[in-house]
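Record 1 of the preview.
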Amino acid sequence: MLNLKVGGVPEHFNYPWYITLKNKEYTQNGINLRWQDFPGGTGAMCKSLREGEIDIAIVLTEGIIKDIIDGNPSKIIQTFVKSPLIWGIHVGAKSKFKTIDDLENATVAISRYGSGSHLMAIVNAYNNGWDIDKLKFKVVKNLQGGIDALTNGDADYFMWEHFTTKPLVDNGTFRRLGDCPTPWPCFVVAIRDEVLEKNPEEIKTVLNIINNCTKDFKKIVDIDKTLSVRYEQQLEDIQEWLSITEWNDGKPITKNLLTRIQNKMVGFNVISEKINSDRLIKNL
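->
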């Protein structure tokens, strides 16, 4: 039996992995798939891919593109969630800042460099016409680190997925000043080159299983109630999230899409130059 480790954020996007693992669908196909939560997000997953600690990552598109350009020996094999990710822009409950414009010279908390919270802070700065070179960052590791930094005044604002942080807005830990959607599909599946070369058929099996689950995910009876309880979210928030979230439809990722994303990332100063998109993807 082939052992594979897959990593992802402990958020509602990845519940289809929980379902397929619970149903032992991988084991039935000769694959011992193990899931690892990454509360630190994309930067932590990219590091684990590089170091061979995980084989597969469900990772933010912008983060893995930048990391592959920077030398991560992995490939993107498909989109996982093709709709944008909505990044909430948060300040602490007692913050003096009232609008996004007030944040131009403020310190932004990020989970780590190269993470979504880092790269999307750059995108947000670009969208608002700020000088990106003057952005000030405070590394906080994860969502709890962001809560601590904003509460203690170690940082001024923090960007994290809108619905994951909604309970913190509801309970008064954070105030949300606005949102910044990703200008591209938000999550992709990335796999280490070594695993792709040695086990292409097993990887295809994994993809078929997860794509089959996400295809009908919204039709699962009471899925909104299940997600609401599991992720401690208001039912209406989960229903809104389900209404705007689209998973991969089984189609391969195209070079044209990745070239367009890279063009935007260059424009946002997230990467300094683009590479041939063939170096980023592997279609099985």
